[in-house]
Amino acid sequence: MAAQQPDELEALRVYSTERPPRAALLGQPNTGKTTLFNRLCGSRARTANIPGTTVESRVGLAATTHGVLEIMDLPGIYGLSLEVPESKLCRDCLDGRIGDVAPDVAVIIADATNFSRSLRFASHALRRKMPCVIAITLADDARRKGFSVNAAALSECLGCPVVITSGRTGEGVDELADAALRAALHGISLESFEQRLNHLPASSVSESDLAKWANDVLVEVASGRLAAASSVSDRVDRALTHPVSGLATFILVMSVLFASIFWLAQFPMKGLDFIFGTSGDWLRAVMPAGPLRDLCVDGIIGGVAGTVVFLPQICLLFFLLSLLEDSGYLARAAFAADKFLRRFGLPGQAFVPLLSSHACALPGIMSTRLIPDPKDRLATILVAPFMSCTARLPVYVLLISLLFAGRPWLAGLAFVGCYATGAIAGLLSAFLVRRTLLKGPARPMLLEMPPYRRPSVRIALWVMYDRGVLFIKNAGSMILAICVVMWWLSAYPKVAPSPELLQMRAQTSEVALQANANPEQVQALESAANLLESREQQLGSMAGKLGLIAEPLFHPLGFDHQLTVAVLTSFLAREVFVSTLMIISSTDANDEASLLDRLTHNRRADGTLLFTIPTAASLLVFFTLAMQCLPTLALVRRETQSWKWPLLQFAWMSGLAWSMAWIVRQALLTGGF
Amino acid sequence: MVVIPSTLMGDGAAQSKRIPLTQLARGQRAIIDSESLTTLAEADRCLLRAMGIHESCELKVCKAGAPCIIEVERTRVGLCGSVASKVFVKPCDGCPAA
User: Fold this and answer.
1) Min Cα–Cα distance to chain B from A93, Å
2) By Cβ atoms counted within 10 A, which residue in A165, A582, A626, B95 is the most buried?
């Protein structure tokens, strides 16, 4: 490497203070590109959508000897000329058609363990008139297998700088950043570009001739040979993609994955619950009563708690998925699930998001980024909320207990039925959407099977941090805003206390002032008065008034005014349904038995029982299928960059839920229940 | 010392008749027929070529049937049955199934 002149160093410093030169990392999937990016930028990286697109890119800053270099990690692609969205995006980005400014240099990734294919990829990329640097990745892995590349000889062959690197060990990373910065600042003259083209095969050359060219270069610059993939890999591949053992392994791995998420997430979730509960109590104690305190405690802290509570599950899911992806297993798992899901127009990769959605639709929808085809991904996003998430569980428990009290076997079957109904409705909806709005079969599975590798915990931690921050910054802010609006709708206008409530309060004070007052009796009276106040507020609030307006819509399902309010308020989140029922039935929130008892005997205004078997069953079916989750809608809006899809999803799921609930109710009424 | 696939050295190894990829046994080597990829959709054909699976290249079957896993040079690619059945190959002589 030639020593730099003082003037050149000064120029580099001056340039670097104005705008950091930008480098684009360009390479094929599974070539160590992202590992190299993480080594280059470390924590100085953020994930953002490339302007005007829904495709993500990571952008970071790399410190070099002479200044800072901005690095953009473009999506992994198999070829620049392919007519797939990612390749088109890379072309547009390199040409400066998207983004604020075109990259000053392209860093082309060449995988040393698959060198011939990397050379063919590089030959296309080098035909663009821009400064280029070749980064040979996984060099340590290749050396261990007996293969090495002479960087100087390759640089001579291709007419551009070449640096040997390893993202895992950090080898050559600083040299690469320096070389990229120098190439960016020097630019490329027509003469040097023409010289570079002279080293490359003609653009019209066939794939076979291109392969011959790559092998000629390989003979000239490489030494040693890579051993053939071991027969162990063959055997493992056969087992993991076998219709029986592959599916069994897949179910086992995913069960362990989700059990781990459930088990591990409970600790931070309890911690978060404690922190927000304590903060709310403290704020309630120090602030004067009034609308501002209500906004801070119930609106903002409640909204933030409702958003952040999903974070542990999301972080853990992406941490574990990153380990699985890095190990090479996910590609095999996608094949194991492909045959079944393809019948419904979904690709094999959809299995992970659909399974994740059984924990919570939010991480499930975020994990659809594993699906490469946009139509396949959109179809998966649209049906993921049909899967029964944990937020539906309290509703299932309550309604199934009402329906099958004292009959545990039937209750168990009903649970399974709820999960099966959601999954079947999701798959049939996918079948329908792939034949109407997103016409066409799922793209045939053509997937590279990356070699089995020991997963990197460091990368998994980066992914986890990145996804967590992205969730809080993008989806979280929208969820918080919606939560505050929903709180406002259910808290205002303030309702004047009824004579019954005033009498109850007076009675409580009277009992409390007695010399031999029983503290437990006072507390019970206070609790009853508070619940009555909540009930009156709930019914008199804007959400309550909306319930009155919406009651005719739900009347055919057997819902009265109270149930309609509970259904509407649970639109914030499904689990709110149970707490709303507790409030409007004025019972002790901590006593499930008394809640069940109260609900069982709850009566409508005309004196008939509210929770008859047909009404409870129709309510259960409604909750199994309805899109009662504002945060999910907000996330779908964010992921699809359009209101069209979440609104369509809401309309379809709600319409289907209403229709199925009506059918079930009518069938039960006809059957004499 | 670098090992180059026999097809790139122009030895004309395969003289056998064309068969679908799905009919190859595990461990068997074959050469992709020069016309076979044309039956695939344009996007799939281009993707396979970019992955290194092009006309006249030599492959090894790692897992037979559907899905089928093949290895070309150092790349392993899984193909679903619908694609694998449209890729025609000529089995290499002297490379019996494992």
Assistant:
1) 20
2) A165
